[in-house]
Structures are given as C-alpha cells and as structure tokens.
Design goal:
- The protein is mainly beta.
- The chain contains two helices and 20 strands.
- It has a 14-stranded antiparallel beta barrel with strand order 1-3-4-5-6-7-8-11-12-16-17-18-19-20.
Length: 475
C-alpha cells in the first residue's frame, strides 16, 4: 500500500476521534459578569473591602478584610443527544463542592498605608466523562466471504478534566477625589487530562464458530499537561456622585513553563478500505517531557454602575482579541507507524498535535441590587459566555469539548453585620447547540468508514446549577 493511502487511513482514523466551558472566558464567577460575587466587577459594587477584579477599586477601601467565596454544591449536566448514534447519547453529570476563592486585604505602612490585596482562586473549568457501547448484529463487512450480518462490538470513552488555580496580588492608588488607578499580577497554573479511546470490532462470517476472522479498528489518544503562566492587569476607576466607571486592560498570558505527556495507539486489522486488500496497520507512540505553550489573549473591559435610592444598577462588557491557530502540544518526529516507513511517520505525527485557535469575543453582563431591609440586600445578574473555539487548520486534536454559547443568571442576598457580610445565592447556567459533531456513529459502521460510522451533527445541551456562598470578615 502506498504512502498516500496509509496517510489517508491514519488521518481518517484520527479524525474520527476529534471531539472538538472550556472554550468560554466568562464561565467563572470571579469576573466582570459576576456582579453577585464579591469584588467581581469593573465598577464599584459597594463591597466592604475585598480583592477587586479591577484593582483600581482597591484604592477606595480603607479596611483590612478576609474573604472566602465558594460553591457549596454544584451539579453540571452535559448531554450530547444521539452522540454515538440513535438512542446512544453521551451524558456527563458531575456534582462537586469546590471553594473558588480565598482573598483578603492587608495594609503596609502606618502614616500613609498602602492596601495590598491577595487571593487564591480555583476554577473547575471542565469535568467531562462519557462512555457508550454498541453490541448488535449489523451488515458491517462489505465482502470477503461475509454477505450477511456480522457480530459488531463498538465502544467509546472520553474524559476531559481541566483545572485552573491562580495566585493574585494587587494594589490601587487614588489619583484624585474621582480618579484611581490599580495594578494586578496573576500567576496561573493550568492542568488538563484529555483521554479518548475507540474500539470497533466485527466477526467476519455469520455462523457461530469461535474461530471466525476479526476485523477491527482501535484508537487511543491521551494528553496530560501542566502549564504555568503570568497575566498582568491595569485598571482605572472614575466616580462622580452616583455614577461609577471602570476600565481594565489585561495582558496576554505570559508563558513561564509547561510540560506534557502524549500517549497514542492505533491498530487496524483485516479491514478493506477503498477496495484495497485487507489492511493491517499499527501505529504507536509515547512521548514525555513535551513543551507546552498555552495561550490566552489580551482583553479590554468596561464597567458602569449607578446608585439609586434602594440599590445599584450595574453593567459590564469585555472584549477578547483573536488568537491564530497554534499548537499547545507538538509531538517530536519519532517513530509512529510500525514498521518504520520513513516519511509517512512525519506526516502522521503532525496529526497528533493538540491545537486550537480563538476568535474574538465580546461578552456583556447586567446586574441590579435592591435593599430589601436595612441589613438585607438582594442581587440579580445576567451574563453571556460566548464560545471562542475556532480553528482554520483541522489537523490534530482540539483541547475543548464545548462548541456552544452559555448564559448565566445569579440570584442571592447579602446579610450585613458590623463585623462581616454574608452573601449566599444560586447560579443557573444554560447552553445549547443544534449542530454538534458526533465523535463516532454506531448506526452504520462499515469498512469504508473504518467501522466507526458516518459522522453527523446532533443537539448538545449544558445545564449548570450551583449553591454559592461568600463570607467577608472585617479585621
């Protein structure tokens, strides 16, 4: 079999495994859209003193505080209807309880103290785990002495677990009675476990003999990586009577260090493809200590808040720049196909990279607070969370699972006491697309599609519900 056909088979085999809030910027509650979350604003939201998303607002506080914000309980459901074929949905339901933020403000100096904010945040970006199986008799093998139905066994398993932890430090200074400026440094640690396996097998022949020949296609792709980067932010604040304005610039993520491990295995046995003789193909690699280069774009955010008699109205927006296609992980040009055929390995290795591109995104949010009682304030906020996934080059694997836009609502109350503020509420999120690409289709496995079916598009839905709590203690 010539090199072009081998490369075509490898590409088709790998592309069947492609499974393109893990491609969204505003999924986390600590951001411009999280008006309910203490300090998560560009303009002022009257918090008694916490680490602000816009560090310029820190110049307005004269208190030393400690704050804990987190999710007491969260359930997230991602359902790809008919994701592996008719009646075979891919459904991931995850429950969790994860603190999201520990923060505080301390003063340095006595005569003219400078207030320094610090925080440790944790974001559970994605925890997606699905599997599906087909066990039936189908007409899988086109010829080769097997004119009837064959015993077919297909399995699919996919895991995508992504976590981010950040350490932040910030300070703000008053430039005048109305203007303030602030600066923040954020060290970010990101880890991802991505694992996808496909197994498709058919017994050639319709009798019950235990010695029937087997046609099979097995593929596996796994990446584990850890990346450390740094993001810098500079903010401005302007206040006049009841009006509050904020502006924030964020740098792209500055690469510090990243390492990853790649494991891939592909084996095709006794499958007739393009009317050729039966194929027997083996490709395998494991590569460690690969360099990781994870990127996030620069962004600009704007916020406005207006004080009215019983509360505050808030709005914010953030624009994220585009990132052209780039490799998060690039394999070394080591032997992949066995036996070694030389140049075909180089072309196949290019298909094993982990690659992404990001389109420009503009997110918006609105919020309102209302004083229900002198010591009780209600909050409500809505925000968009548009998907940024966009690749011009479809080679390799995408690190993302979601390809849809999400929308969030926060509802809650703040209980104010002399020494502390207690804020509690709920988060509701929803996302949907009607054109999600299947990773595999067990409806019509054939030799012409390497026993993995004809890929189509299906609906996908994501629903999130969480109980949130924040405690701010005035030291």
């Amino acid at each position: 079999m010539n090199r072009a056909i081998i490369t075509c088979i490898l590409f088709l085999c790998i592309s069947q495994l492609l499974f393109a809030q893990d491609a969204n910027y505003w999924s986390g509650n600590y951001g411009p859209g999280g008006f309910f979350t203490p300090g998560a604003v560009i303009a002022n939201n009257k918090d008694s003193g916490v680490l602000f998303y816009n560090p310029a607002l820190q110049a307005l506080t004269k208190k030393k505080t400690a704050s804990i914000s987190g999710t007491v309980y969260q359930v997230e459901s991602i359902k790809i209807k008919d994701g592996a074929g008719t009646g075979k949905s891919l459904h991931s339901r995850i429950t969790s309880s994860v603190p999201q933020m520990l923060s505080g403000i301390v003063s340095v100096g006595r005569r003219k103290p400078v207030y320094i904010g610090y925080a440790l945040t944790h974001t559970a970006v994605l925890n997606y785990n699905v599997s599906q199986q087909q066990d039936t008799k189908l007409n899988v093998v086109d010829g080769g002495g097997s004119p009837g139905l064959e015993y077919y066994l297909g399995q699919y398993n996919f895991q995508n677990l992504t976590r981010e932890t950040s350490a932040l430090i910030s300070t703000g200074f008053k430039l005048s009675n109305r203007w303030a400026i602030g600066f923040m440094a954020e060290g970010q640690s990101r880890s991802q476990h991505y694992s996808e396996t496909v197994s498709a097998r058919a017994l050639i022949g319709s009798n019950t003999s235990s010695t029937l020949p087997l046609a099979s296609n097995e593929g596996a792709y796994q990446v584990d990586y850890h990346h450390i980067g740094l993001k810098l932010k500079a903010g401005l604040s302007y206040e006049v009577t009841k009006h509050h304005f904020g502006f924030l610039l964020s740098s792209p993520l500055i690469h510090i260090r990243g390492r990853g491990t790649l494991l891939s295995n592909m084996a095709i046995a006794n499958v007739r493809f393009l009317d050729e003789d039966p194929i027997n193909l083996l490709a395998n690699t494991r590569q460690t200590n690969l360099k990781i280069n994870y990127k996030t774009p620069a962004s600009a955010a704007f916020g406005y808040a207006y004080d009215y008699r019983k509360g505050q109205v808030y709005m914010a927006a953030e624009y994220f720049l585009k990132i052209k296609d780039y490799n998060i992980l690039t394999p070394r040009p080591e032997i992949f196909q066995r036996p070694d055929t030389g140049n075909s390995n180089s072309s196949a290795i290019a298909l094993l990279e982990m690659r992404e591109g990001r389109k420009a995104i503009f997110n918006v949010s609105v919020g309102v607070s209302y004083q229900l009682k002198p010591q009780l304030t209600g909050y409500c906020s809505l925000r968009t969370d548009f998907n940024y996934a966009s690749r011009e080059n479809t080679d390799g694997f995408s690190p993302n699972t979601s390809t849809w836009n999400n929308y969030y609502c926060q509802l809650g109350v703040n209980i104010k006491r002399s020494q502390y503020n207690l804020r509690t509420g709920i988060l509701l999120g929803y996302g949907h697309t009607g054109s999600y690409q299947q990773p595999i289709n067990f409806d019509d496995p054939k030799e012409s599609n390497l026993l993995t079916g004809t890929i189509g598009t299906v609906p996908a839905t994501r629903v999130t519900a969480a109980l949130m709590i924040a405690f701010i203690h005035n030291l």
